[in-house]
């Protein structure tokens, strides 16, 4: 069985239980990434209109020019759309409707599946994004899970939360009596349980026969199936030891992250650094021209610490022991271990445990 650990963290960093929103950017930016551009400069667009191949506009407004920006999707050209603040939708947002089996099969491939797992677990410390999706849209989630269970009575429907997500745990424990076919799984605060393969292994569920969705993905599907709404915003945790007011914020896709921070966040004085998607498996970023894309879940604002100087590997083996695949990261520089390097999921556990402070992410960048 995989060895799981609980990460050390500063218990004083607490994310507010109130949702904030930053949904009125002056402009948004969408990565072009070699796809086709379907509109021209000065065209007016509506929310949900396809502006780039496979990319729908999250705001209504006027198409401007291409600008160089960066995000987790990469550096390059981004299409600027100036906001008209009118929130005009391409299609009317429908009333909540009862869904049918064929609607579900259009968005989930449930062929041969035995388990449907809603995963509301955040792996990274100081991040509460998935937990918040469940907390905010709790009734909607239970309603859709119940409908799925009724349409597919042979499917086992699970909701997975961390034991530390106290509000969700207590609500679910008191309400699931009304939904006897939804199975609640409360898991310990172990790192990596938020990832599908490790969660299923921990729960003893067959990977091939289990369909797993994060709470954020489930919310998008709920909106699409029940209300005919396309994705235009997301939840983002902004926290860290240099952030005075950690919170979860609802943000329009394509917003400049710097603008959200300036509008909502108080930062401690001193040297700080920014991490997108966590300090274990995320990456350090510069806020300048950084755009919120659909794969961004958190921004951690951390005090810059003087890192101990890495020493020579002493071959203690702790990194391999803790690595989920028992890889040998200290040998990744050797071409013979290229196949191992390719299996690395950049979870950061090897750097976390190394007694001589070797940081493998930095090492691999050399
Ligand atoms: S970062 Fe890669 S090598 Fe290190 S523990 Fe994670 S999977 Fe293993
Ligand atoms: S944990 Fe650090 S010192 Fe120990 S084997 Fe791995 S790289 Fe070397």
How would you summarize the topology of this molecule?
Blueprint: E1 19-22, E2 27-31, E3 44-45, E4 50-52, E5 55-56, E6 61-69, E7 76-83, H1 101-107, E8 115-119, H2 129-136, H3 138-151, E9 156-162, H4 166-175, E10 182-187, H5 196-203, E11 210-214, H6 215-227, E12 233-239, E13 247-252, H7 257-264, E14 272-276, E15 283-285, E16 298-303, H8 318-322, H9 338-343, H10 349-353, H11 360-365
One iron/sulfur cluster is lined by residues 313-319, 330, 353-356, 358.
Characterise this structure:
- With 366 residues, this protein is an alpha/beta fold.
- The protein has helices at residues 101-107, 129-136, 138-151, 166-175, 196-203, 215-227, 257-264, 318-322, 338-343, 349-353, 360-365, and strands spanning 19-22, 27-31, 44-45, 50-52, 55-56, 61-69, 76-83, 115-119, 156-162, 182-187, 210-214, 233-239, 247-252, 272-276, 283-285, 298-303.
- Strands 1-13-12-16-14-15 form a six-stranded mixed sheet, with helices on both faces.
- The longest helix has 14 residues, at 138-151.
- The chain binds iron/sulfur cluster (2 copies).
- Residues 323-325, 327, 329, 344-350, 360 line the site of one iron/sulfur cluster.
